[in-house]
């Protein structure tokens, strides 16, 4: 084969590959893409507009909210936020929520990672039974456990206390954490674990210094999802915590919103809503890329 022939064959192959890469979109693809974009725009508007209206209303007085609900505030001040934080005790409730969610999140991540690691990496008697019981916990409705939980916490002396809420949060978040992390630990190479043993590492050191950092994508994803679920938890605290000095934000919002008629300070109520949702928005905005990457890595495994 001559040089010109080989050159023409190479050029033809490159042209075929390039043409294969640049596939023309069909009419149906364009229609589906257009419909998808329209649905996303409508969904974005449905989510953003109520949040924007709530933010604007948090700077208005109650009279101004009813007189001109869709106009800009007459004055941009933080009086409603200060009133919600001090007068209506949302500062105390915010602190209670941070304590309960923070401690619960640390405990559930440590215990869940340990449990998932043992179930995924060691062939222990009954390990599959324990794993399936964890999965069964995901299907158990929370409201069915309210009455037993009430009497259990009452017998332990933890009813209407923050430690009682923490233990309850950990118990209900643990099955999801174990289920999510199980696949991450299962997919990690056994050679690295064996190499750590050869180097003289104990089981604890192998877990905390070798295997746990390798499962960081899964830990990040499940930590964010647990934070969102625990921060917005409503049924458990409203049923197991009736002491107003121990209220969390979800209870405070329910109590505020259930006040009778026009006696509600709606400006302060909207400010309390902003106080409640801002931490969730900050966590999601900061960690959204890490969450997406963690979930994609987990599904690819």
Automatic annotation (TrEMBL):
Domain ABC transmembrane type-1: 94-287
Organism classification: Bacteria, Bacillati, Actinomycetota, Actinomycetes, Micrococcales
Name this protein carries in UniProt: Carbohydrate ABC transporter permease
Top-level taxon: Bacteria
UniProt keyword list: Cell membrane, Membrane, Transmembrane, Transmembrane helix, Transport
Pfam families: BPD_transp_1
SUPFAM superfamilies reported for this sequence: MetI-like
Membrane-crossing segments per the record: 31-53, 90-119, 131-153, 165-185, 219-240, 266-287
Main subcellular location of this protein, as a coarse class: membrane
Cited InterPro entries: MetI-like, MetI-like_sf
Family (UniProt): Belongs to the binding-protein-dependent transport system permease family.
Protein localization: Cell membrane
Membrane-topology descriptor: Multi-pass membrane protein
